[in-house]
Design goal:
The complex is a heterodimer of chains A (362) and B (583).
Chain A lengths: L4 H21 L10 H34 L17 H28 L9 E2 L11 H5 L13 H11 L1 H6 L16 E6 L12 E8 L2 E6 L4 E3 L2 E4 L4 E7 L4 E5 L4 E5 L3 E7 L5 E7 L11 E7 L1 H25 L5 H5 L3 H4 L3 H11 L1
Parallel strand pairs in A: 2-10, 3-7, 6-12
Antiparallel strand pairs in A: 1-2, 3-4, 4-5, 7-10, 8-9, 8-11, 11-12
Helix pairs in contact in A: 1-2, 2-3
Chain B lengths: L2 H6 L25 H29 L10 H35 L8 H9 L1 H13 L14 H4 L2 H31 L12 H33 L12 H35 L6 H15 L14 H29 L8 H24 L1 H7 L3 H31 L5 H28 L13 H31 L68 H4 L15
Classes of the chains: A alpha+beta (362), B mainly alpha (583).
Bound molecules: protoporphyrin IX containing FE and copper (II) ion (2 copies).
Amino acid sequence: MNIPSSIWTLLVGIVVTLVSLWYGQNHGLLPAPASDEAELVDGLFNAMLTISTGLFLIVEGALIYSAIRYRRRPGDDSDGPPVFGNIPLEILWTAVPAIIVIGIAIYSFDVYNSIGGFSPHAVHDAPIGEQAVRMPGAAIAATLSDTPPSADPNLNQEKSDAAMQDPATAAVRNADQIPQRRNAPGVGVVSPTIGASPDKEGAPPALTVNVTGLQYAWIFTYPDTGITTGELHVPVGREVQISMTANDVIHAFWVPELRLKQDAIPGRQSEIRFTPKTVGEYKLICAELCGPYHGAMNTQFVIETPEAFEQWQKEQQVASRDAQQLVAMNSADLSPAEFLAPYVSDLGIQPEMLQQIHHTHH
Amino acid sequence: MTQAQLQEGANLPALSEEPGVRKWRDYFSFNTDHKVIGIQYLVTTFIFYCIGGVLADLVRTELKTPETDFVSPEVYNSLFTLHATIMIFLWIVPAGAGFANYLIPLMIGAKDMAFPRLNAVAFWMIPPAGLLLISSLLIGDAPDAGWTSYPPLSLVTGQVGEAIWIMSVLLLGTSSILGAINFLVTIWKMRTPGMTFNQMPLFCWAMVATSAITLLSTPVLAGALILLAFDLLAGTTFFNPTGGGDPIVYQHMFWFYSHPAVYIMILPFFGLISEILPVHARKPIFGYQAIAYSSLAISFLGLIVWAHHMFTSGVPGWLRMFFMITTMIIAVPTGIKVFSWVATVWGGKLRLNSAMLFAMGFVGTFVIGGISGIMLAAVPFDIHVHDTYFVVAHLHYVLFGGSVLGIYAGFYHWFPKMTGRMLNEFWGKVHFALTIVGLNLTFLPMHKLGMMGMNRRIAVYDPKFETLNFICTMGSYLLAVSTFPFIINAIWSWMYGPKAGNNPWQALTLEWMTTSPPAIENFDKPPVLATGPYDYGMSHGDDEEVEKVPLSDEREPALAAGPNSALRADPDPKVAAHPEDRK
Ligand code: HEM
Ligand SMILES: [Cu+2]
Ligand SMILES: [Cu+2]
């Protein structure tokens, strides 16, 4: 049977298209999305993966086919046909990638806009607010009770704690070596990042959380309630704004399920906004190399129901009141830093941080 | 001597007295012959590659399990910092310069480079820079802030190690600037009479593009590093927020060099591949001009995409879009090259020897890295995978699957020219098979790791990633094993391999028109061009119809019988035309 090559081309084209379409939807390469924004990003990724699979199959297929079909037979010393070029073909394959990347660029542009990349609030100069790292000394004690008892050990917290106690880390972290934000005037720039999505433009976020990264821990403060904790809790379905900065070196805030990442840069404040969608516990990872124990700089990120969130907030506040009393009781002979020192390892923060608390508190 | 006369002898076995032979001592001296320097570059950088490879396997050994049970986290950071620095600055970049040194004068019919002494100086900066860098491991204070060395981290980790790193990279950058000047002047001024730009082999075009970006961007890196050194050693605060400096400025300066640097790392090998494919496919390169000009387009565009490494740090929203679009546009000239290569092999008579297999493997794996590169350009997706193993996978598909396979293809292809002897094909194919399998085993799973949430540069990771990491680690051991057949084959064949003849591949570029290895000044007289560099399959006497306008039509055909006749007319009956048919 002699099937004309155009039919073959057509058949191959159909198979490649079907395989690409299927794989683009069923790749299982990404963790389940946990925010509205993440779903948009996934749509973009699936589209790119579909196109990529097609391109991959075509190029690899052509190479392997050539290697088999056109290999030199022993004894054949002749040359192939002297084809130097083919203008229509060359125009075609200049146009095809051009159209593909224009398509991807427009799609990306749209997704980027929808997740708030163009939010005008995200681009402005402002001194770093005191609030970005506002941490009343008493409130920080609240985190003493912030980690709910859990059956399985929190490996990352252990690693982080161990990292903090390691003499090598302690050596690196000599306060005089590390640029401390408290001494820095700061560039005072709010790093433009991911702001409000267009439909939420102008409206303040339902919840603001200030985040400080420091070797090797994250500190979260809730300016509305004064809560300070070592893990991030947010209620589902309400837009959250994260304002972040770093104390010593560059860190990066990353929750894979949110598909969001942002560097926390000393001397700058950066922001991201998102709307959590799926209740659950996730991992918040530091994604920018920040020192030897960078790999251990993780914490819990909890998306919970509004009720659970309220409950959690109350617990935190009670704990913070208790702690305040404690401070009051002890403060006669102890500075907050001294008082908190024993808890440092539980909190995953460093004495320098406490030093800073002391400063901002007064 | 005309090319015709040169070609007369081209298919004979090598002369018994080897005119290009040199004393081994020459290779350890301040020799100014471009061929000696080229080989010095290639051998030296290959040794650094082996060191970088050992470091990579140490990194992977640590990552076999989620805990830090092999080295301490500090040592781990030094390992990947040195791995990356060595691979980039001491292997890929100078290996490209090595091929350029060896090949450019031969390909354009010149006696040597324009500035032979400068050339030797450029080479001799590399060994001390490399030893300096590696010495930091021995004194126990190796740099550990990553090869990007972002402040403020690089300012607060070990001071000595960081200073050594800066010094070493500055030396290597200087070396590559000196090399680039030399390549540009040589290609501009020393082409054999009658060779226009459009008759130049594509490797020379690639080196024009590479040298241009080297000259434009390396000084910016030097600037960044010098400022960083001031911050580190003199207490200034250019990049240090404590004193009002801005770490983002460093990132801009660093990537202004280091993004173009990825084209410094890949363009020369694009050039090599464009040389190798047509020879072994026995077909002209498809779309000569498209390939030549796309190199220039890539080098120009490469200068305006750097901030795509900073999508998650501090660049304004609209700027991200600008850099996304410029980055994506690079896919077009790159795509043109890939399609042209595929069209070159399509319908040819492929000699699937080791050089060709590596060249086709290059195209096949580079495509994967290129595709993931377009994905990374899409800002919303990059925000998710930036600084994760997805990026590590992408960069290794480009650098290992691209540059390294390209270097191997080049080694196999030009080894007969450089040494006068053939490499063993069987072991070459074993090398190829192990490399391709190892490469994909090592780096393919990393895509998924990154997307699922494994960030890069970590010694400890979430236990749920253990299986995939285990596969990667096994693949990396296979890669280590894969180099042994090559090393043994190269050393053995260099000493005892079968004589190659001057033109074992019946290639048409000028380097094959002289003896193997070439005599000290390459050609007795400036060679006269009789064919274009890729006129394979052109009519030889019997007036076949030539469909497309060949390059050689632009000049008077010097050979009435057709350009390839000398290659084919009277093959020595004792010697089979194809090395693989020889016994
Ligand atoms: C022998 C095979 C190789 C293996 C197994 C390997 C393995 C690795 C691994 C595991 C990392 C990530 C380290 C980390 O993030 O903790 C890495 C990083 C890197 N490798 Fe390789 N690699 C190999 C070859 C190469 C080659 C040939 C090049 C370049 C030409 C290269 C360039 C780099 C670069 C630039 C990085 C980034 C380092 C960083 O994030 O600072 N590698 N490699
Ligand atoms: Cu960090
Ligand atoms: Cu980190």
